[in-house]
Amino acid sequence: MTRAARSDTTWVFGYGSLIYKVDFPYQQKATASISGWERRFWQGSHDHRGTPCAPGRVVTLIPSPGATCRGVAYLVEQEVFEHLDHREKNGYERYSVTICLDEKEVEVDGLIYVATEDNHAYLGPAHLEEVASHISRSHGPSGSNTDYVLQLARALRKLGDHDPHVYALEALLTQ
Q1: Residue 174 pLDDT more than 90?
Q2: How many CB atoms lie within 10 A of CB 49?
Q3: Using one digit for the tens of pLDDT, what is the confidence trace for 102-157?
Q4: Of 152, 156, 115, nearest to 33 (Cα)?
Q5: pLDDT at position 7
Q6: Strand partners, 99
Q7: Are 4 and 101 a contacting pair, CB within 8 Å?
Q8: Rounded CA gap, 170 and 164, in Å?
Q9: Does some domain include residue 3?
């Protein structure tokens, strides 16, 4: 994993809210996947789905050999990074990755936003029931943390993806 440098246009892989909340211009969009990563609700959200005093939980990626993470890739121009960097400011950094564009069956170089365990907002792993309880009581400027989980689960179903971690949290939050 290497830190990504800026270029004129590049592919950005969305695996969380970037799948369903596309508030930026793009040149192309494609269902895509990356290898060796899994989504986990281990990142704190002080600015969107929680507050500084009561952070919510949002997804980040963790390295996982043999795993595949599905999402959406967007080809964006350089100017878009100002918006995306602001949106992903709470502990996320850009890293280079190979993205497989599903429909074209081609691999492209791109980047992902990852919040690693050494950032100030990282909450880390916890039992699924504890994560669900935390999410159920969190709310921030972008809405309820539960809504974030439910929107992500719906978006993943539309992509035909099965993410056991997201779906297990969805089940706990809707029972």
Answers
A1: yes
A2: 25
A3: 887 899 999 999 999 999 999 999 999 999 999 999 999 999 999 999 999 999 99
A4: 156
A5: 54
A6: 108
A7: no
A8: 10
A9: no
Total residue count of the chain as it appears in this document: 175
Whether 2 is in a domain gets the answer no
What per-residue confidence (pLDDT) applies to 117? 95
Q: Is residue 166 part of a domain?
A: yes
Host domain of residue 107: 9-174
Please list the active-site residues. 88
Tell whether 160 is covered by a domain: yes
Question: What's the CATH number where 168 sits?
Answer: 3.10.490.10
Closest CA to 135 of 118, 153, 120: 153
Mean pLDDT in residue range 84-108: 93
Provide the whole-model pTM: 0.92
Percent of the chain's residues with pLDDT above 90: 90
Structure tokens at 73: 């890739």
Other CB atoms within a 10 A radius of the CB of residue 64 amount to: 14
- Residues 98 and 137: their CA atoms lie apart, in Å, by 36
Domain count, the chain: 1
Cα gap 148→48, rounded to integer Å: 10
* Distance from C-alpha of 41 to C-alpha of 112, rounded to nearest angstrom: 16
d(CA 154, CA 157): 5
The pLDDT of 45-59, averaged and rounded, is: 94
Cβ 103 vs Cβ 72: under 8 Å = no
